TrEMBL record:
Residues 274-504 form the Sigma-54 factor interaction domain. InterPro entries: AAA+_ATPase, AAA_lid_NorR, Homeodomain-like_sf, HTH_Fis, P-loop_NTPase, PAS, PAS-like_dom_sf, PAS_fold. GO terms for molecular function: ATP binding; sequence-specific DNA binding. It comes from uncultured Sporomusa sp. The keyword Hydrolase does not apply. This is Putative sigma L-dependent transcriptional regulator YqiR. Residues 17-62, 134-185 form the PAS domain. The gene is yqiR. One of its GO terms (biological process) is regulation of DNA-templated transcription. PANTHER family: C4-DICARBOXYLATE TRANSPORT TRANSCRIPTIONAL REGULATORY PROTEIN DCTD, TRANSCRIPTIONAL REGULATORY PROTEIN. Keywords: ATP-binding, DNA-binding, Nucleotide-binding, Transcription, Transcription regulation.
Length: 588
């Protein structure tokens, strides 16, 4: 062991202090290697072992170039010139080394190399450069900001003030750095926020002649408050008012466009638009309201003119999709060869005459809302198969496309045909019927709810008055009795057509009387009167009185006994209505 220790001692340092000198060299963090004038390693300290990964016992006594290539120690002995701050690799470690010849009594006795690991040093330098670039970027951002920014330390002294704030305060930013913020910015609370650690957001502060909106936020690092940052959001409260005005204008424009979009693609009617107090209509409104809350497909059945589309609109407007589009498709109005393209859309070049850029189909346009498939019973069988897939998968492919489009839609279908009979005749697919027939609404014909006719007439007359410049107040009881006795094969649509035709043919009259009605209604009344009295001996006055009484009784039923409302339904004055009640012994 003692011989090994002596082997680690350079001859140039042989003295009584050798042990102490070796301890010193073993304690330094730089690697030290010493060679004699033959190039043999005579000393290799502990730091050299750590940096190189070599052990001193395997290095000492060996030629230096054999164990540590490219040390340059042989070269400095040959030239006698030192080499300072030289980079080299020892294994995978990059070192910075100084090489110096050892001269004693004018004679070259060896050389010493002192080196240190700079791998970690390079990483630190890289990190510092990154931090420097980040700091420069942040400073550039702050300087380019329109809002004034100020940063203080925990004692309230300014560490940074950007260009916008310094120009607003009319101060030199370099001159105020280091000063207490209260000496630079009047009425400030930055130093208090830095002490208390409580943020102050959109606070009002008077600076010079300006009423400013400012925000002050404490800076917290490792759970400790180290300062605060403040910014001037608005240099004058008038800027805030101006911005508020602009936002209000934008909101108004947005609401306008949303309303116009809703008018173009939204549902037009609600459950309030469905007129009638009959038991059937009341029950349907309740059931349809429950259907609107879900997402299931709704199938609306009923004769033409009963108001199937009205219910479809109402269901959409009562659902959570009411802000989405309501797209109507009349399956009977589209030719079979165009139906698929209209429903599912197409890509550019899908067929001859395809629009450049393609075109979205009705299903795609209805995404996020509701699609109403009217006259579904008229859809060809080939299209029924494709429709079934869309309903099952909730996705479609445009004609000529290779990718699918996901759908989020509510489907409402309607028809005046008997789908079950069509299934038996192989005219409608049973599986599609089951997919559609989840929630069914059967709309009754008008002849089954004649008590709703007075209310319907009131609504329709109001609608017609907006289209025709002829003021008509209402319908006389005699005429109402005729309207309520008619079968109405065309339902509400036919009733509207009759009223509109009558008003167009009237002169200056303000009440629709029996003589204004079409002959088919008056003929029906004569036939009814004959049926009720076999020989037709009733006098005309008796017939009119009976019709008037029946109309009054129906109006009272529709108004649930409310006499004022019944008078309005019949379009007569309240005092006249009471006289008629007394005449026919209907007062209770």
């Amino acid at each position: 062991m003692q011989k090994q220790e002596e082997g680690r001692r350079p001859k140039a340092f042989l003295s009584t202090d050798m042990a102490e000198m070796q301890a010193v060299l073993d304690s330094v963090c730089n690697g030290v290697v010493v060679v004699n004038h033959h190039g043999i390693v005579t000393f290799f300290n502990t730091a050299a072992e750590t940096i190189s990964g070599l052990e001193a016992k395997n290095v000492i006594g060996q030629m230096v170039d054999d164990v540590i290539p490219n040390t340059g120690l042989i070269r400095v002995m040959e030239t006698g010139l030192p080499e300072v701050n030289q980079r080299q690799f020892i294994g995978k470690c990059e070192v910075l080394t100084n090489r110096t010849p050892i001269i004693k009594d004018g004679m070259l006795v060896g050389a010493v190399g002192i080196f240190q690991d700079i791998t970690e040093f390079n990483e630190v330098v890289t990190q510092l450069e990154d931090i420097k670039r980040l700091k420069s970027t942040l400073e550039s951002i702050m300087e380019s900001m329109h809002e004034g920014i100020v940063v203080v330390d925990k004692t309230g002294h300014i560490t940074m003030l950007n260009k916008a704030y310094s120009e607003f305060l009319a101060v030199d930013p370099k001159a105020v750095v280091g000063k207490h913020v209260a000496d630079v910015i009047e009425n400030t609370r930055m130093h208090l926020v830095a002490q208390e650690g409580k943020a102050e957001v959109t606070d009002i502060q008077k600076i010079k002649d300006n009423t400013c909106i400012v925000t002050r936020i404490p800076i917290v690092k490792d759970g400790e408050i180290i300062g605060a940052v403040g910014n001037v959001v608005f240099k004058d409260i008038r800027e805030l008012k101006s911005l508020a005005g602009k936002l209000h204008k934008l909101e108004s424009e947005l609401e306008y466009y949303k309303e116009e979009l809703f008018k173009a693609y939204g549902g037009k009617f609600t459950f309030e638009s469905i007129i009638g107090n009959s038991q059937q209509i009341e029950w349907l409104r309740d059931v349809a309201g429950k259907a609107a809350k879900g997402t299931s497909t709704v199938l609306i059945l009923g004769e033409s003119g009963t108001g199937k589309e009205l219910f479809a609109h109402a269901v959409h407007n009562a659902s959570r999709r009411r802000q989405g589009p309501f797209i109507k498709v009349n399956c009977a109005a589209l030719p079979e060869n165009l139906l698929e393209a209209e429903l599912f859309g197409y890509e550019e070049g899908a067929f001859t005459g395809a629009r450049k850029g393609g075109k979205p189909g009705k299903f795609e346009l209805a995404n996020g809302g509701t699609i109403f498939l009217d006259e579904i019973g008229e859809m060809p069988l080939a299209m029924q198969v494709k429709l079934l897939r869309v309903l099952q998968e909730r996705e479609l492919e445009r004609l000529g496309a290779t990718k699918t489009i996901k759908l989020d839609i509510r489907v409402i279908a309607a028809t005046n045909r008997d789908l079950e009979a069509m299934i038996e005749q192989n005219q409608f697919r049973q599986d599609l019927y089951y997919r559609l027939n989840i929630f069914t609404l059967q709309i009754p014909p008008l002849r089954e709810r004649t008590e709703d006719i007075p209310l319907l007439c009131q609504m329709l007359l109001k609608k017609i008055r907006n289209q025709i410049e002829h003021w008509v107040e209402g319908v006389t009881p005699e005429a109402m009795a005729l309207l309520m006795q008619y079968n109405w094969p065309g339902n509400v649509r036919e009733l509207e057509n009759v009223l509109e035709r009558v008003i167009n043919l009237m002169d200056d009259e303000t009440m629709i009387a029996p003589e204004h009605l079409p002959s088919m209604l008056k003929k029906l009344n004569r036939t009814t009167a004959k049926d009720e009295d076999g020989d037709g001996a009733h006098e005309l006055a008796d017939i009119k009185d009976d019709a008037e009484k029946q109309a009054i009784m129906r109006a009272l039923t529709a108004a649930e006994g409310n006499k004022s409302k019944a008078a309005r339904l019949l379009g007569i004055h309240r005092s006249g209505f009471y006289q008629k009640l007394q005449k026919y012994n209907l007062l209770k």
